[in-house]
Amino acid sequence: MTYYAKSPQPDGTQKTVRTHLQEVEFLSGKYGKAFDAEIPARLCGLLHDFGKYSPTFQDVLTGKCSGIDHAIGGAAFLYLLQKKALRSIIEAIAAHHSHIISQEDLAGVLNSVVRTTDIVTTLSGKQSSLCGIEAYQRATEAFQNDFPNFQLPKIKTLLPKTPLTNQESSMLYTRMLFSCLVDADYTASSNDFLEEGPLLDISTCLQNLYNYCAALREKSGANPILNQFRNQLFEHCGQAGEQVGGVFTLTAPTGTGKTLALLHFALRHCQYTGKYRIIVVLPFLNLIEQSANIYRKIIPQVTEDHSQSQLAEEMREHIARWDQPFLITTSVRFFESLFSDHPADCRKLHNLANSVILFDEAQSLPVSLITPTLHTVQELCTRYGCSMVFSTATQPDYTGLQGNNWSAIELLPEHPEFYHALRRTKVCWEIETPVPLEEIADRMARAQNVCTIVNLRTHARKLYRILAERCPPEEIFLLSTDLCPAHRTEVIQTIRQRQKDKQACRVVSTQCIEAGVDLDFDQLFRALAPLEAIIQAAGRCNRNGSRICAEICVFIPAEDRLYPDSHYENCATLVKTMQMNQPIDIHDPSAIRRYYNHLFSAFRGDTKSHALEKAISERDFPGVSKSYRLIEQHGIQVIVPYEGEKELYQQLRAEGLCTGLTKSLCRQAAPLTVTCYDQELTESICEPLYFAGTKHLKTDNIGYYILLPGKEDYYDAKMGFCLPEKDEQQNLFW
Question: Under a CB-based contact definition with an 8 Å cutoff, are residues 262 and 250 in contact?
């Protein structure tokens, strides 16, 4: 009997199981070779579709049968051998069409499909393609006919070269083999073997970087002392690139040119070590847009992977694989993929091997996720040949976190000198008595180039309305996540131009302005917040050192609710306590260390961290994937009628309501999408959207909405999306 792996092609050809296994074995081994796992990866590829040596599966191809799980077959075949070294291989094979489940949790099903002749339902809810010893014997004979020289590799060749010392490293190893297998299977099944992305021409990129920096220096209007330190940081990072790989930190004040300095390190490090891919990880979309615009002037091949990236169809497969030489992505996509259990998320992981990874704004990592994240990062660097840089102006001291053995090399050991020399701001602490927002508005109205950053969107809207009574409308601006991304981008560009033209500019903002937004104010007000937020806010004031010392006023708003969540409140309260006991110098790295030491020593875990810790200890892949979330997705998505993209909105509305949403349409809608947290109120002015073909089916709400006809005025040209009447719920979020 000839066993087929796929349905017939339009030209009449049909791929056999033997041919498909050969292709996947080759590709999977090729991918695994990058981290010394060629043999186990090849074994994954060779046995992943063992379950297709089954009359039941052959009936699937002819349409006689459905709901069949063939992936469990190869896993059960290996499980019979009872070898501990096969655990990760078994887990990867069993998961390649569903999601990863530990061998321990699979054991009952693996035993059942081999030892019973009854129909067995697997954990995927499907029927196993092979059931019973006789079925496995026939499948084994068919496999041996196709591969007469097959022998199980020696056990020592299937083990990692160095032992897997903890649960995080063991689970990551499974995900890496899973990645090799899934990518090889998808690639072979597509009948379109993609060529690897072109390698970076490091010498050309370095020369482009040097030319770009020279042009910046020539036209810079920044303070000469600041420029001197920017040049010094740039040179330090370049020199630091010429050392062996590992975990690094870059600690430097805001506005000192870390974006270009990090690129200098990465290119020199690739040149020195032979690493061939650079991945830039950023927490916010506005940062990605800003950084990508800079990098494209230097690097010929810059690829973005995030929710708003508009990619040509031919690039989508490359993005799914992360095989491009220079990639920019979000911290959500990067870190959550490292802890995922799903094929689409894990497919790209093997391409992390031998990469330089630049994680900017590293202070954005949630405390509840830090310990497992650092364990996994260190594993990436020791076992998979990566080098990773944690870069920020407010470098957390992870050594103070319980259960963590953090060790990293600082790229700028003399950073305290930078902070001391570049004191561009002074902080006035007004935190003993709450300050009414009316008073803040009065003080803003007397200034020409000023910004106030508050913690809640309700505070931002209230302050903006008060300010609107005192100033001409063209001189005041609101920035928050109530504005869709396209709208925020336009507002930031307008502010930047007014600052350049020395025109009056008064900005009210939430935290969305703090990280990486290149705006420069003469004066800044900041509602009491965590210390890292205050320091990041200070980076938007006197950014280029053009004034002697600008003032930042930290105040407590005279409002009922002050913070978005309990953790944010605890951090802000810690800042107040520290300041009352001993004045905080935001330009002193020792003060930042003291803050993090207090914060980490006080952190005893929360529900989220306990759930994640428990899932890791139990090798619960789905539980880890569910618990490891950088951003909790509680909101619903509303596509809004932003005037600057009116045609796009009308197109999205027509297609979304008529034919339904598609993944492509969701990507197009991203620049016009805002997140709302009061579903009941939102549904009073919006109608739900459905994925194409599901509108009349009883499916779960997919969480996308669009404004009802006549309700478009709820999206304001200045304040963005404003829900009617009840406003309290929105103040829980940024």
Answer: yes
Dihedral pair phi/psi, residue 316, rounded to 5°? -65, -40
- CA dist., res. 1 & res. 104, Å (int): 35
Q: Which residue has the tokens 């129909």?
A: 119
pTM of the model: 0.89
Tokens at 428, concatenated: 């006035």
The residue-averaged pLDDT of 180-186 equals 96
Residue of 481, 499, 519, 516 whose CA lies nearest to 640? 481
Cα 360 to Cα 367: distance, rounded to the nearest angstrom: 16
Tens digits of residue pLDDT in 207-237:
999 999 999 988 887 788 888 999 999 999 9
Domains of the chain and any CATH numbers? 17-189 (1.10.3210), 202-418 (3.40.50.300), 423-586 (3.40.50.300), 636-732 (no CATH)
Residues 6+ apart with CB under 8 A from 683: 705
CA atoms within 13 A on the CB side of 45: 30
CA proximity to 114, closest of 144, 78, 147: 78
Question: In whole angstroms, what is the distance from residue 24 CA to residue 93 CA?
Answer: 12
For CA atoms 312, 314, 315, 319, the dihedral sign is positive
Phi, psi of 258, deg, nearest 5:
-65, -30
pLDDT of residue 576: 96
